[in-house]
Amino acid sequence: MKTIKFYTLGCKVNQYDTQSLREDFLRRGFKEFANGKAADIYVINTCTVTARADSESLGFVRKARRENPAARIIVTGCLAELDARKIEQVDKNSLIVRNRDKESIIQRLTTNDQRLTTNGISHFKGHTRAFLKIQDGCDNFCSYCKVPLVRGRSRSKPLMEIVSEARDLVKSGFKEIVLTGICLGSYGKDLKPEIGLVNLIEELEKIGQLLRIRLSSIEAADISEALILKLSRSKKLCRHLHIPIQSGDDNVLKDMHRRYTRADYLNLIKKIKRKIPGVAITTDVLVGFPGELQGNFENTMDLVKKIMPLKVHIFPYSRREGTFAAQDRNKEVPVHMIRERLLTLKKLADTCAMDYKKQFLGKKMEVLFEEGCKDSPGWWQGHTDNYILVRFRSGRNLKNRLIKVPVDFR
Ligand code: SF4
User: Fold this and answer.
1) Which numbered atom of ligand 1 lies nearest the CA of 145?
2) Segments making up each domain of the chain, as ranges
């Protein structure tokens, strides 16, 4: 029996892709190894969203070759899409498979049986909440982003395939599914007839034992009136929207080729909060975009303060070859300034998070418990629908239990 090991970097879509490959290999009798054991085959699903992701991806290639010099190493994912040369420099014997050919990996390693196709997923290893990929690719070409270059144009999975995967996940015991994609909001626009995210959500709501549906990152420009209405009425759709800001300054947003102004964004958030009481907003901010002056950064700080997000993922600008912004080298912000801005924004983000959460302190809310607290035996942690991480003490096993408890996050 051949043994296999998976290493995955990056976004929920990449994690979904690995789970889909995992299930394919396990269905064909491969045994998955974890920890330090050397395996016959390694699949490294790489990410290239930042320079750091590149080096971490290559680090796993080295680690696999060290662990088993005779191993069959497959390197796939976004780094493999455009930077095969970098991978070959690290390990010339690796099999490099581009994102779009991921589904053919098992064929290349097993048989020449043409019928082999991926069947989607029915489980999600190591997770209590399952990520379900519904869309891939992006047509937006934000000037700093390499993703459209490595994931291709936007394309949606047929609705009934998603519903069937969701049913399989629920059969495996998952109570919450996180719908994920590279550009989630463009779901269904390429399907004939065209459909939207709300159509999909309405089909998924019919699955009895599926208790929660969560949306992963969605662009501001893709949030429709229909989606806001669905969020305000649905019993299953979580009151949580992750809407990237990237910058709070109109000049920087323009240079980033983002499809909204700071006023558009602010008005959208005000409308969402008005129509969906208790909704949580989480977001991404990119600090140090080429040409970002102190005044531009202060506009970002001001917008974040006004939105009061539960969480801010803060990214330092990372030049990505092949992107429009990479041409602006002479306008790049010095690293020490980026670091300073990161720390300043982090402090503000922590204050906003506490300001948002404290309105729920002590209130009884439904929490889907995910795991025991490693630092406190007897305590369990999980998320409310509006994504507050709650800790609760219990002598019972609360894993994957959805129960009402007083909110405590201290
Ligand atoms: S929307 Fe912009 S940032 Fe997001 S994946 Fe597409 S190009 Fe990249």
Assistant:
1) 8
2) 3-109, 127-238, 247-258+268-359, 364-406
